[in-house]
Amino acid sequence: MDTMRAVVYDRPEHFTVADVPVPEPGPGEVRLKVLVAGVCGTDAHLHVGEFGPTYPLTPGHEFVGEVVALGDGVDADLLGRRVVVNNCATCGHCVECRRGRPVFCRNVAAQGVNAPGGFAEQVLTDADRCFVVDDLEPEVAVLTEPVACVVHGLDVLDLVPGSDVLLFGAGPTGLILTSLLARSGAGRLVVAAPTAAKLELASARGADVVVQLDRADPEGSQAQLRALAPDGFDVVIDATGALAVLGTTIGLVRDAGTVFVYGMAAEAAEWPVSPYEIFRRELTIKGSFAQQFAFDRALSALRNGRVDPVGIITERFSLDEYGDALAAVADSSVVKAVIVP
Ligand SMILES: [Zn+2]
Ligand SMILES: [Zn+2]
C-alpha cells in the first residue's frame, strides 16, 4: 500500500508526523497533492482541543493543491489543475442549510477540524468544493480561505459608507481586513497593533492612521485612540481574540455604534459587558464565523489586487516542522506561516 506523510493528532496537544495510507477518491471526490497549506490561529485552538476536533485528526483547513486522482463521476478536465478548496462540506438538508445558512450546518464536515485536512502530502476533497487557480501562485492562492472569511465578515458587518473604523490587529486577518475595509467605504480606517513592522504593512494596504499599542501601558494606548475619536468610532473591530482588547471596545465605540467580534477568543473566555450601556447607547455587538458563498469573491479580490498578498507569508515549514509552525503562530514577529509538504 502506498503511504504518505501527514500530521496526525490522537488527542489534544499530542501529534506525530506519521506515515499513513494514501487515500483513494470515492465518487465525486478528487485527491490533491498539497502544494501549500496555511497555518492560522484556529490551528492553535485545535492544538489544545478547542473548536470541536475529532480524532484522529489531520488539521489544515487552508490548502492549495494539484489534482492528481479523480473519483467516479468527476470531470476529467480537473486532472492536473491547481485548486483551492472550500474546506466545509455542508449537508444541505438540516434546518440551517435549508434556510440558506450553511455556516451553521448541524452536520458539517470541516476538513482540518473534524475531517482530514491539508497538513499532509495528499488529501481527498469533493470536486464540487474545488476552485481552479492555475493563474495564481500557490502562496497567493493559499490565502483564498482567510480572504473568504473576511469577505463573509464584511457581509455580516454591513458597513455604512463613510464610517469611522477602528481595527485592532494587524496579523494576516487584520491585514486582509485592512485591504478590504479601505476599499469598501470606510471614511477613515485606524489600525492598532503592538508590532511596528505589521503596522507598516497595514499602512501600505490603506490604513489612514496606525497606532502602535504599548502592552506595558494599556491606558496610555487607549487614551491615544480616544484622542483620535473623542466621540468614539462608528465601528470597532477586534481581530485579535484577546480579552484585554475586547475589554476596551465598548469604551471606544460611538453611541449607536457597532463592536465587531472577528478574532477567535478562547472557548471558555468571558467578557463583561454592561447591558445598561448597550441599552442606553443603542450599541450593536456582531460576530462573524468562517464563511459561506464567499470563495468566488475572495478569488476576485486576490486576482484584481484588492487584497495585496505581498509580505503576508513570512515563514515556511515542512510537515516534520509542524511544531515549529505552531510556535510561529504565537510569535508576534511572524505574520503568517505555511506548511510546504
Ligand atoms: Zn484559518
Ligand atoms: Zn446542514
TrEMBL record:
Gene3D superfamilies: Medium-chain alcohol dehydrogenases, catalytic domain (3.90.180.10), NAD(P)-binding Rossmann-like Domain (3.40.50.720)
Leading EC class: oxidoreductase
InterPro entries: ADH-like_C, ADH-like_N, ADH_Zn_CS, GroES-like_sf, NAD(P)-bd_dom_sf, Zn_alcohol_dh
One MF annotation (Gene Ontology) recorded for this entry: D-arabinitol dehydrogenase (NADP+) activity
Residue intervals of the Alcohol dehydrogenase-like C-terminal domain: 172-292
Signal peptide: none
Residues in Alcohol dehydrogenase-like N-terminal domain copies: 26-133
Cofactors, names only: Zn(2+)
EC number of this enzyme: 1.1.1.287
PROSITE patterns: ADH_ZINC
Matching Pfam families: ADH_N, ADH_zinc_N
Keywords: Metal-binding, Oxidoreductase, Zinc
Family: Belongs to the zinc-containing alcohol dehydrogenase family.
PANTHER family, per the entry: L-THREONINE 3-DEHYDROGENASE
Name of the featured protein: D-arabinitol dehydrogenase (NADP+)
